[in-house]
Structure formats: C-alpha cells, structure tokens
Amino acid sequence: MTQMIEVLLSGMTQGAVYCLIAIGLSLVYGASRILNFAHGSLYTLGGYIAWYFVVGYFSLPLWLGILAAIPILAASGVAIERVIIRPLRSSANWKVNTIMVTLGLAFIIENGLQLVFGPGTKTIPAFAEGVVTMGGITLSWYKIWIFVVSLGLVGALEFFLTHTRYGQAVRAVSQDMQGASQVGINVNQVFALTFALSVVLTGIAGILLAPVFLISPLGGWGPFLKAFVIVVLGGLGSTKGAFVAAFILGVLEAYIIFFLGSNWAMPAWLVMLIVVLMIRPKGLFGVWEN
Amino acid sequence: MKTQNQHAPARTISSVFTGRGFVKDSLIFWAVVAGLAVLGALIGDNYIRHVFILVFIWCIVIASWDLILGYAGIFNYAQLVFFAFGAYSSAMLSIYAGFTPLLSIACAAGVGAAVGALIALPSLRLKGEYVALFTFAVHLALPPVIQQGKAIGMGGHTGLLGVPWLNLFGHQVSTIDKLTWFWVSLAFGSVCVYLIYFIVLRGRMGLAFIAMRDAGTFAQSIGVNEGKYKLLAFVVSAVFTAIAGGVYAHYTTVVTPKILGTEFFLMAMVMIAVGGLGRFPGAILGVFIVVIGNELLRSFDDYRLLLLGVAVVILVIFFPGGLVGLQRRRSAGRGGQ
C-alpha cells in the first residue's frame, strides 16, 4: 500500500514537470497555431545550458544556473520566432512549412549539441539531498522541490495570463488574432513573447529533470511526445486542460512503469495518444476547430 | 533531367487535371528513364552506380510522400515507418519463410497496405497538425518496438543480417553486381514513379486528392468521399514505400532500426524541401540533388546532419516552393509571395 502511494506521489511530481513542458507547447499553439516540433530539443537545450554553467565550465549552484539559463532561453525563443517562424507566416502553405522548419530546427539543435558536447550523457547534481520519510512513505527532497518549483511556475504563468496586460494580450491573440490586431495589440510582439515563455518553461523543465534523468542530445523526443499527448488530452491551447491532463498521465505513467517496467513507458504513451484521439480528439477542455 | 523539368506540365495544375499532354509527358519520362539505363552501362565506376541505385530507391519513397503530403495535403510524417515495415517484412519473409525475394517484396507491399490502413484509421478523424504529430509519434515509437521485437526475430538493435540476394529468374544478383542492381532499381523506381505520378495522380484518385487538399468542404459537397480517399492516399503511399523498403533490404542485405534514425528522416525532408511539394517532377529532382549532394558531403561527416538540418530551414524559408516553386515564380513574372 505504501508502495502504491509512493508511486502515486512520484507520478505527481513527474506530472508537474510534464505540465511545464506541455503548457509551453500549448501556449505557442494557442497564440500562433504553430506546433513547435523543436519543443523537445529546446528542453534538451535547457539541460545542456544548465550543465554548462553548473558542471562543465563554471561551478555555479544549480539555482543560479537556472537563473543564468533563463535569459538565454528567452532570447533563443525570440530569435526562433523572428528568424524562422515570422518569414513563413504569410506564405501560402505556412502550416506544412512551419512543421518542416521546426522539425529542421529540432535536428539542428540536436546535432549541434552532439557536436559541442559529444554524444554521451551528462548529469547535473541535485540541489537538494536526502529523503523525507512520513508514515512509511519515502520521498526525496529533490522531488518535492521539483514539484514545488513546477507548480510555482505554472501558477505564476496563470497569474500572468489572467492579471497582466501582456498576459491578456496573449489570450486575446489566442482567441482571435485578427480582432486582437484590430484593437491595437501588436500581434508579432505577442508571438515573440509566447515563444520566449514557451522556451523558458520547457528549458527549466529540462534543467529540473536533468538530475533525475540524464541529459543526452537526442533525449528531447520523449518529453516532446509526452507533452503532446498531454496537450491533446487537455485540449490544444488550453492551459487548464494541460494542467489536469499532465497529472492524470503522469500518474498513469508511474503505475505503468511500476507494473510493466520502463520499457513500456513510450509504447504506453503512444497507446494513450491513440485512445485519446479516438475517443475525444478535442481533449478535455479543448475547442475543436478547423 | 533538366529537359524534363522544362517540358513537364508542372506550371498549372489544370493541365494535369485534364490529362492534357499525357502521351507526350509519358514519352519524355520513358525517354529519360532509357537515357538513365544507358548511362548506367556507360558509367564504369561502381560507387557512382551505387549512388544512383540509392537515388532510384529514394525516388519511390519521395514520390509516395509527395502523393500524400503534397497532392492529398495530409500531413503524414510516418513515411519511413512504411519503408521500415516494407524492409523488415520482406527481409523476414525471405530469411525465415524462405520466400524468393521478388515474392517477399510483393508480400511487403501487402504488409505496407495493411500498415497504411492501420495508421490511416486514427488519422482520418484528425485534422491538420494533429495528423502530423500522430504520424510522427508512430515514427518515434517504432524503434523501441523493433527492439522489443527481437523475440520474434526482428534482430533488435543490430538488425537483420544476411538478407538473401535478389533472385531474378534463377539468376542471383549479389550486392557487388552494381550494374544489374542499377537496372533493377531503375526498373522498380521508374515503374513506381510512373504509376504514382501518371496513373494514380492523373486519374480520378489524384483529382479527388487535389480537390480535398485545395477545398476540403467543397470537395465533399460535390461528392468526394473524404474518408475513402484519405484512406486510399495512405494505402497507396504505403504500398509503394513498402516496395522501396523491400528493394532496399535486398540490395543492402542488412536491415537495422537505423532506417528510422535521424539521417534518413532528414534526407527525406531535405529532398522534399529542395524539390517542392505537389508538382511533378520537383520532388524527384530533389532526390537526385540531395542524394548526390549528400555523398559529396561525406567528407564533412561530423557536420553532415547539422548541415542537412540547416538546409531544410534555409530552403523552406527562402524557397518555400522548392525548385518547382522557383520556376513557377519566375514564369509568373514576379517574385515575392
């Protein structure tokens, strides 16, 4: 029984981090209708930037490494939007073209990281050691930290989206791009902002998970696929949906790994994706649109 | 290939619709194929023949991808899944069941049809980028499944070794025999490409695909059965790609999960990006340029994949229509979007 609860709790911490990745994906899709296939490799990029600061070249503590990585991640987000996405937005086949370029970008980041850091795996030491035991249930402090930081970031994002002018502009663009631009919202600025936020969120998720999983150049596809399943279950473009779905699927994954072994995790995600798409393609909270 | 580019009726789709110039285009196509066949005999160098064999096999894959992505407008990114299924099933049938390779390639086509239908079924209910993600997810999830498939003889990580040589009417064609392979792969490639671009896409099916792509709702309202034709797009595309996979398996005699790795996928993307979608012979020209270019880049092996990725991004941003888009833009007399 205590083991079951432990699995549940570890699934929830995992879900909290998945939530960060998924919300980043969903935010960009919601605002600009662009599915960023490079999202997973940006997750990996976050891990490598933190590794560079914490282990590789400077010996900063992890929290400082995260703070140092944030502006770099945000700048890459803005750069991606400016250089790669914006020129395509007005083209006739922008949908297939943006899929192509973001896939291409994913491969550029992957292979770039592989060239710079080598194909091997890297790890970052956790900033919290030890475990806490309560009523026979053991949880590591680090997982508790991950959980708290992730939820804090999601909460901050939700506050930003609902209570600030920029956040409201993002939501306005998500609802009606043309209408938003007619009332004077700078749509391009909003796109850049959502890309920056999205890259920062997924990058931080990559950093937080680096001590638990290892960082490797090709390691981003797994989180990307998971984030996508979460976003589909929650409904593309819905932050609330992504939040709920992340916990459902995170816990489900934890139980599947516990009962069947970690080899089945990825096939299980694919099955979950197919089941969700067959039963409720618009997701829990999503609006089906053309 | 240059001359073919100039004469092909790629400029306006309407001429393709009506089948105008069908006989002339067919003649040009087969003339080019015949020219290539002669060229194969003239080239003395086996390495160059090898490169051309790869070109011909890739042509089938890219033509079928163009069929579903460019003509039918379905964002299918599971093309190499079909290829992998074709290669594995053909290899396994000839290794374990002792089928003669030509028969096992035919069976691989059947397997391809089944896999295509299987992937199509969830995709039929999905729209736009959901299809892209679902199909790409299948692509990403397949290598671990192949690893698990070691138990049923899929060879796991090292793959299947010792796939039998092609047996042409009692004559064993070894991998070393590049000249025969050149002609065999040219025959497979030209027939498949001809069937795809001239028979399927110029017929009723192609019309329905283009109608669905350009005006989905309108196409349905005039009686195009969307579900049926989307399913057909997947199945036809998968059948041809699986045949390519089978030919590839018997040519290299080794099948590994590398087929689903980054390199193959990137190559396919660059070919499409170079050639341009939905306008014959764009994608086919893309195959020639990219496979040959990739071989020329062999000396930069460390940077090759990075360069391919950069090529995709730059080409899509600056030449969104690929080669055919460029030609079309010039003949339209003005640049820009």
From TrEMBL, chain A:
Q: Which GO terms describe its biological process?
A: amino acid transport
Which Pfam family name is an example for this entry?
BPD_transp_2
Source superkingdom:
Bacteria
UniProt KW keywords: Amino-acid transport, Cell membrane, Membrane, Transmembrane, Transmembrane helix, Transport
Q: Which residues cross the membrane?
A: 7-29, 49-80, 92-109, 144-161, 190-215, 227-249, 256-279
Task: Give its localization.
Answer: Cell membrane
Q: Which GO terms describe its cellular component?
A: plasma membrane
Q: What is this protein called?
A: Branched-chain amino acid ABC transporter permease
Task: Give any GO molecular function from the UniProt entry.
Answer: transmembrane transporter activity
What protein family does this chain belong to? Belongs to the binding-protein-dependent transport system permease family. LivHM subfamily.
Q: Kindly report the protein's main subcellular placement as a broad class.
A: membrane
Specify the protein's topology with respect to the membrane.
Multi-pass membrane protein
UniProtKB/TrEMBL annotation, chain B:
Q: Where are the transmembrane segments?
A: 27-44, 51-75, 95-121, 128-146, 181-200, 231-252, 264-293, 305-326
The record's section on CDD domains has:
TM_PBP1_LivM_like (cd06581)
Question: Has the keyword Membrane been applied to this entry?
Answer: yes
In the UniProt record, does the keyword Ribosomal protein occur?
Answer: no
Q: Name one GO molecular function term.
A: branched-chain amino acid transmembrane transporter activity
Q: Which UniProt keywords apply?
A: Cell membrane, Membrane, Transmembrane, Transmembrane helix
Tree of life domain: Bacteria
The UniProt entry lists membrane topology as: Multi-pass membrane protein
Q: Which InterPro entries does the record cross-reference, listed alphabetically? A: ABC_transp_permease, LivM-like
Q: Where does it sit, as one GO cellular component term?
A: plasma membrane
Cellular localisation: Cell membrane
Give a single Pfam family match: BPD_transp_2
Q: What is the name of the protein in this document? A: Branched-chain amino acid ABC transporter permease
Q: Which organism is it from?
A: Antarcticimicrobium luteum
